[in-house]
Specification:
By secondary structure, this protein is mostly helical. Among the domains are: 105 residues, no CATH class; 104 residues, no CATH class. It is built from 19 helices and 2 strands. The chain has a two-stranded antiparallel ribbon. A hairpin with a 5-residue loop joins strand 1 and strand 2.
Length: 431
Amino acid sequence: MKLLPLLLAASLLANVAWLTISAMRTSPEPSDTPTSSSSLHAASTRSASDTATRSDIVAALKADNPEALRDLLREAGLPDETIRRVVGSAIWARYSDRMKALQPKPDLDKPWWKNEHQWHGSSMTREQRAELRRLQREATDESTRVLGPAPANHGWHDTRLSFLPESKRKDFQEIEQDYQDLINEVQQEMQGFSLPGDVEKLRFLQEEKKRDLATILTPQELADYELRMSRTAQQLRWKMTRFDGNEDEYRKIFALQQAYESTQQLDGWGNVVSHTPEEWKQRREAEKVLNEQIKAALGSERYADYIRSQNHEYQQLAAATKRLSLPPKTATEVFNLRHDLSAESKQIADNANLTFAQKKEELAALAQKTRDEVRARLGDEAAEVYLRQGMNWLKNLEQGQIPTFAENGQHTGSRSLPPEPKKPAPRPTTP
């Protein structure tokens, strides 16, 4: 690191540390009495002592001596979290220039109206990425050596690792990082376009990671890992957040989802790959079985909540309900209007006593009735936004198109009213 940036960094870190030390000291109570010569002398003594302490901190920073800096801050009584931030910053500053040198230089001729490529770090070579990871690990190891292991609530630790003994977390983290690096390499090579060989590479790496984890984890710990941190778990947590499910429901769905995924071919991002019409058919059948199993596990009522929560239109309604402080049931009531509408529109379409024109008139009235109910529940302003973004199919209903919906309430299309049967031509009269 060059001298000027080093001095600036040292001064900044010293100021941060010193401001913290100063803030921790007890300030004297305000007094109306005149300042005595003894108090001035005490203030002068404190000032000289303060200056010396600050000089020691700056000296430790300039000397690139994190151990001395750590000891000075501990002697000053700073909390461990502050010491970690200051000393950790000083350690990582050693590597700053080398890390920056590995990053691609900005292209000054790049059009300002275009973004970078969507795959992160695509302009770095494999060797540069490997060197960057090596420097990051070296800085992390040095921080651990000087400051000790980070506490459970610091850094990369999270509540998902609560099942794992502290003694195994370092080895676990190293295996996780090693395989994540390898997976990143494959994804970098893909550059947004997956080939069949890429799918096989990623599948192999996932299997190898699981084998390596099995060497340091007990069978129960490995099962807990799958439950909390596997690819299935990562995707399911998003669904459970929208569903607001409890732990028992999560465990039930996870077991079923994991069994389903084990029968499917997945791409690098965990999405099911279906190439031929037969594979698509098999996938749809497998999804149908999965949904039936989830319904049996949750019960009909909670299953309805689960599938509805994954619908984007329902998520809009839930957000509107929360923002406008409406009763929690409002989102479900408005969303379920489509089911009532579907049943009523079918009755109208199948009514043999109505002419084609009368059916269209009835359907238009049903569309207007539905809009009025939405406004009554959401209010005019929110209703206008939702009707425009989430219920465009009402316009088709007014034109005599019967909307159709999937099990989760997703609008899947429309079917036309059956044409009015032609009246038979009158028979000619005989003379």
